[in-house]
Design brief:
alpha/beta, Rossmann fold, 6-stranded parallel sheet, 11 helices, 10 strands, 15% strand
């Protein structure tokens, strides 16, 4: 692979665009090929076997596009599939969990960390594992927030219904006296301002998307894969498995670039 090849990023839908946004900000010379599996969103209520199958299909598609590294911009897919995919494919594959866990371990003052995510991510206990590897004294409080993904996909990031669901899901974590909260799904940073309004200034929010872009940069530097001949303007590509027009509209509210096209791509089963 060439250092000037693109980076592959994938997610179940638009949430992974928060990771793509951070990559564009932190490593602006890199080009991204993004795949949003919008026909099969959400991933959080699906089995491990299904998530592995979906991840394998998407990674093969991205490798066929010539990417030099892959970011699994989905907490559920990271929890269920990253380890197996890294063993199966000879390409750097970065997930979103470890960078977020490391940031939360560094941020907490009282060693009480909350994690919100999909049912799959929370039930996998993967954040507990990485947090306790860093600091065994950290107590982790997880809460599945299954409706958040649908609210984001429907563009309801600033809506009374969303505010009500934030209160319903997160109240018990606030009552558990957490001082740090991991946004453990890449859709959730799009609700950051609403969550901040509810939890207040004493709880630090950790955005794994930001930390994942930092981790990707470190991997590219260590592997001598940083782009050496960047184009004047990177030509990012966006693929989806359904709802291309809706995706393009949401993407243009999230990304710092102009998304002119989202290409429909149906993957082989």
């Amino acid at each position: 692979m060439s250092s000037d090849s693109p980076i592959g990023v994938f997610d179940s839908g638009v949430g992974g665009l928060t990771v793509a946004r951070e990559i564009m900000r932190q490593i602006p010379n890199e080009t991204i090929i993004y795949f949003g599996d919008t026909a099969r969103v959400p991933y959080g209520n699906k089995s491990k076997e299904t998530i592995i199958k979906y991840s394998r299909q998407i990674i093969r598609f991205l490798i066929d596009k010539g990417v030099k590294a892959i970011v699994i911009a989905c907490n559920t897919a990271t929890a269920f599939a990253r380890e197996e995919m890294s063993a199966e494919f000879d390409i750097p594959i970065i997930g979103v969990v470890r960078p977020g866990a490391n940031a939360a371990a560094a941020a907490t003052r009282n060693q009480r960390v909350g994690v919100i995510g999909t049912e799959g991510t929370i039930n996998s206990h993967i954040y507990n594992e990485f947090l306790n590897m860093t600091n065994p004294d950290i107590k982790v409080f997880g809460k599945a927030c299954p409706l958040f993904v649908n609210l984001v996909e429907e563009g309801m990031t600033d809506d009374p219904v969303t505010d009500a669901m934030i209160k319903r899901y997160i109240s018990e974590l606030v009552n558990d006296d957490i001082d740090t909260l991991i946004l453990g799904c890449t859709h959730y940073p799009l609700l950051r301002h609403a969550i901040e309004r509810f939890v207040g200034p004493d709880i630090t929010l950790v955005n794994p998307a930001y930390e994942t872009a930092r981790s990707l940069k470190e991997v590219l530097l260590a592997s001598d894969l940083m782009c050496k001949n960047p184009p004047a303007v990177p030509k990012h590509e966006f693929y989806v498995s359904d709802g291309a027009d809706k995706f393009k509209t949401l993407a243009n509210t999230i990304l710092p670039c102009d998304v002119r096209d989202a290409i429909l791509e149906v993957l082989n089963e």
